[in-house]
Amino acid sequence: MKDKKKKLNRFTAFFLIMGVIYSILIFKLGILQIKDSEYYKERASLTAITEIPDPAPRGPIIDRNDEILATNIQSYMLVYNETSDNKKYFFETMDKVFNLLESNGEKIQDDLELKANPYRFEFKTNDAKAKESLEIRFKRDRGLNEAIEKKLFPDKKGKFTDQEIKQVNKELLKITPEQTYKLLVEQYKIYPKEDFKNLLEQYRIAPEETYPIITSRFNIKSTTEFKNKLDEYKNSKSKDRQEILDSIISEYGIDKMEYPLEKQRKYLIVRDTMKMQSFTGYKPVIIGSNIKRDTAFVFSERLNDLPGIDVTTQPVRYYPNDELGSAFLGYISKISNNSEQYKEKGYDVSSDYVGVSGLEAVFEDRLKGSKGGRIVKLNKQGRVIEELGRREPYPGQTMKLNIDKDVQKAAEDALDKTMKNLRDNPRVSYDGVDTSNATRGAAVAIDVNTGGVLALVSKPGFDPNIFSVPGKLTSELYTSLFNPDYEEFAKDYIANRSLSVTAEELFPVEKDGSRRDVYDIYPKPFFNYATSSFTSPGSTFKPLTAIAGLEEGVLGPNETIYDNLIYTKHGYKGRSWNYSSKGSLDVVEALAYSNNYFFFEVGDRLYEKGLDTLAEYAWKFGLGAPHDVENPTTGIEIPELFGQVFNVQSEKNKASNIYIWSLYDELLQLRKVKNTNTYEGIDLRVRDTDSKEVKGLKEEIYDTIIKQMRYRNVPNFSESVKGMLKEVIQKSPSMNSKKFTDGDISAAMNKIYKAVYAVEEEALRPGNVYNAAIGQGSNYFTPLQLANFAAMIANGGTRYELHLVDKFLDAEGNVVQEYKPEVMDKVDLKPETLKAVREGMHAVSSYDEGTGASEFRDFPIATAGKTGSATFRENGVQEKVGRTSSGVYIGYAPYDNPQIAVCVIIFDGGHGGSVNPVAKAIYEAYFKEELTKQNYNFQHIN
Predict the structure, then answer these.
(1) Which of 874, 475, 456, 827 minimizes the C-alpha distance to 623?
(2) CA 212 to CA 205: how far, in whole Å?
(3) At what angle do helices 162-172 and 128-141 cross, to 10 degrees?
(4) Which of 129, 176, 242, 781 could share a disulfide with 785, CB 3.0–4.6 Å?
C-alpha cells in the first residue's frame, strides 16, 4: 500500500505539472494566433527602424536682376530597398522594373563608370593621371586589391607601406575593363543559376504561382519530368536539396546560361550601387532618377508586385538656360575625387553631388545646404510604412551675381553666330587668312565703376544639366567631351589645309598613350578660354604703349611720327600691316589706324629709357605683374591664369628652359670617337638607370646652370660646375669608362658659358621691346586681363578687383554677405595722356578708316575701342600647324561717360574687325532700354 501511494505521488505530480505547463502554452498560443494575431503580424513585418537622409536643396544662383541661372526641381525617383525577405525576388523584380521603365520611355540610372560593349572605363576627366587614379580607386572600392595583396605579400600583417601600395596599384592597372567586369559579375553572383536557385526556394512555398515563371525565364519546356524534379526538390530534406539543385541546374543547362550583356549590366549597376552604399549605412538604391510623373504613377500602382521598389522625390539641380553661363557656373556631379575629404565633411560619397568646377565648386560650402533626415519604419519588403520623426533639410544660400543674363545671352549668341560665319566663309578677308577653324572664343564685360563682371563667355560651352540630371550623359556625349578622337580630327584638319605635318606632330602621343593638343587646335568645352587662355593681345596693347610713351615724356600728345612702313633700327625688321604710308601721324591717328611703325618708334624710345620701362606700365594696368608678386590675380572668384608682359627676367626664364636642353644635346656630342663618325659626351639628363647619387648630382647641376642663366649670381660658378661634372662622370659607370680629360671638361664648360651668354643676349634684344610695343612677341594675357585693362582706361586708371558674385542671401532672403567694390591699384595719369588715348580709341570707331568704324560709326551710343590681330606663334609655326591670327577687340561705352568695358577674342578669327559684331551685341543688350527709346534697329539681339 505504501509503495503504491509513493508511486502515485511521484508520477501524479509530474503529469500535473506538465499538464499545467502545456495548458499555459496552448492558452498563450491561442492568444497569439487568434486574439493578438494582427498585432504580431504587423510586428513580424517590421524589419527595421532607420533614418533615411533627405538631401538639402542646393542654393539657387541668380543674376543681378534676380533672373534664375541655377535652381532645383523636384524629381520623381524609383528606389529599391533590399531586405532579407525580398532579396530572393531580386532578378524577377528587376526584370519587371526594367521592362516598365523601357515601355515608358525611361532609362535606368547609370552612374557606373565601367561600361560594356565595348568594355571600358568612362571617368569624367580628360587628364590621363586623374583617370589612372580614378581607375585605381574604382577597383580598390570593390575589393579587387585584396587578391593581389595576398599574392604579393602572403605573410603581410599590419599596414602596407607606400612602396607596397604602389606595387599593388601597378597590378590593379593591369586588370583590363573586361576582366574587371567579369570579376564583379562573379562577386555579385549575377548569373542565371543564382536566379534559378532563388526561384526554386519560392517554388517550395508557392509552386503553382512560381512554376510558369521558372519555365518562362529559363526557356524550359513544361514537362511532367521537369515538374517532378522540382517537386522532388520541394519535398526533400534540407540536407539533400543542394545535390538535387545541382543536378537540375546541370541537366537543363542552367549552369551554362548567361544573361544578355545589356540586361546583365543593369543587374550589375544595381548590385554595385548596393555594395558602394553599404559603406554608409542604410540608403535606398536609386533605380531611376528624374522619371516622368506618369511613369511614377505607373509604378505606384504596381508596388505590390515589385518587392522592395518604392517611388519618392528629391531635388535635382537644374539649369533652365542650358549652356548659358557654363563658363562661370560650372557644374555638379557625383563625388569621384577626394572622397576621403568629403567623407570627413559629412558627405555620402556613394550618392551625394558636389560642385566640380566654376562657382558651383568654389562656393560648395555655401550652396550645399544642410541635410535633413526621417526616422522611419520599414516593412519586410523594405518599404516605408510609418514616419516616426523628421529633421527638415535647410537649403543652401542664394548666390546673387553681377552677371546680367541678357548681356550674357547676347554675348554667347553673337559669339556662336560670328564664329560660324567665319567658319562658313573662310579666306574672305583682304589677305585671305583661313578662318575655317574659328571654333574657340571668349567674351568678357565689366562694370567699369565697380569691377562687377556683367558677362563672361567661353566657347564652346557645355550644358551643366548633363551632369546633374541623371541619364543625360550618354556614352556618345561622354566620348565627345572627355575622350575625343584627336587622330581622326587631325586627319581632316591636315587634309583641309594641305599641311605638311603628321597627326603625331599636332597631337603628340604621351607615355600613357593619350594625346596632347600642343597647339591648342581642338575646341575644349571644359577649358575656360575667358579666364585661362593666354593670347597675344595684338594691337589692343597699343593704348598701353601710348600711355607709357606719354607718361615717360618720350612722346608728346600732339607730336607726329612719319610712317616709313618698315622699321629697321638695331637690325630689327618690322613693318606696318598697311601697304602704303599713312604719312605723319599723331597718337590719336596712330591708334585709329593701328599703325605699327608709330608704335615701333615709341617702343624704341622706351627701350632707351630701360628694357623694362614698358613692362612697368603694363604691370600697373594688370597686364602681368612684377616677379616679387606672389599669385597675381584679377580678383575673379573662379580659377584663372595670369598672363605676363615682356620683361627681361621673364624672357631669361623662358629662354633658359629652351637653351639648357639644347646645351644638354651639345654635351652629348662633346667629342668625336676615334676612327668613327660617331660622337660621345657627358650625359646630364636624368635616366631611370642612374643611381640615386648620380640623379642627385645631375639635378644639382641643372639647378645651378639654370640659376646662372636667369640671375648670373651663382658664387664660384665655374669651379662649382666643374667639380660637379667631374664627380658625376666618376660616379656614373657609363661615363667613367670613357675617360674624359680636363680638356674635355674645359670644352664642356665653354659650351655651358656659351648657353648662359645666349640666354642673356636673347633677353636683352631691342626687338623684344619693339614686338611688345605692338602687342606681339612675349606678351600673353587672358581676355579677363584685357577687359580689365580697357575698364581702367575708361574709369581713369582705377583697377578694381573683379567679381562675379554680388552677395549671398539666406533662405529667407536676408543678406549674409555682400561684396563691395575693392580697389586693387590706382594709376595717376596725366590728363593729357588720358585724353589722347581715349580720343584715339574713340577714333577707332568714329574715323572713316578706323578699324572698328564699319560696326560702330553709326551706333547711337559713342564707343571707344581697339582691334587687334594676335599672332599665335612666330617663326613660321603658326602657318606650319594651320593656325592663323586671333581676332581681338577691347573697348568701352559710352565714350563720354563710360559704364561698361568689353573684351572679345576669337581664336583663328583672323582680324580684330571680325569680332566687332560680338562687342556690338553686348552693347546693344546692355543699353537696350535706352536704344529702344531711340527706335534703334537692333542688329544682333531680339
Answers:
(1) 827
(2) 14
(3) 90
(4) 781
Is the model's pTM score more than 0.90? Answer: no
* Pairwise CA distance, residues 650 & 626, whole Å: 10
pLDDT of residue 894: 98
In the numeric block, the cell 655651358 is attached to: 752
Q: Look up residue 199 and give its amino acid.
A: L
For residue 288 the three cell numbers come to 531611376
Q: 118: cis peptide before it, omega within 30°?
A: yes
3-class DSSP state of 180: helix
Q: What is the pLDDT of residues 219-243, one digit of tens each?
A: 899 999 999 999 999 998 888 889 9
What one-letter code names the amino acid at 777? G
- What pLDDT score does 1 carry? 45
Q: Beta strands 886-893 and 900-907: pairing type?
A: antiparallel
Residues of the chain under the 50 pLDDT cut: 1-6, 39-46
Cell numbers 532579407 correspond to 84
What residue ranges in 362-424 does DSSP mark as E strands?
372-379, 384-391, 398-401
Query: What percent of the chain is modeled with pLDDT above 70?
Result: 95
Hey, what's the torsion of the CAs at 423, 428, 429, 435, to 10 degrees?
Answer: 20
pLDDT at 546: 98
H/E run at residue 290: strand 285-291
> Which 8-state DSSP code applies to residue 821?
P
| DSSP states along 576-635 | -SSSS---EE-HHHHHHHT-HHHHHHHHHHHHHH-TTHHHHHHHHTTSS--TT-SS----
pLDDT of amino acid 479: 84
User: Which one-letter amino acid corresponds to residue 396?
Assistant: G
Per-residue pLDDT tens over the stretch 574-592: 888 777 888 999 999 999 9
Opening angle at CA 224, ends 222 and 228, nearest 5: 110
By the 10 Å C-beta count (0-12 exposed, 13-18 middle, 19+ buried), 231 is classed as middle
* Region for residue 742 given its phi and psi (left: phi exceeds 0; alpha: psi -120 to 50; beta: otherwise): alpha
Half-sphere exposure (Cβ direction) of 371: Cα atoms closer than 13 Å? 13
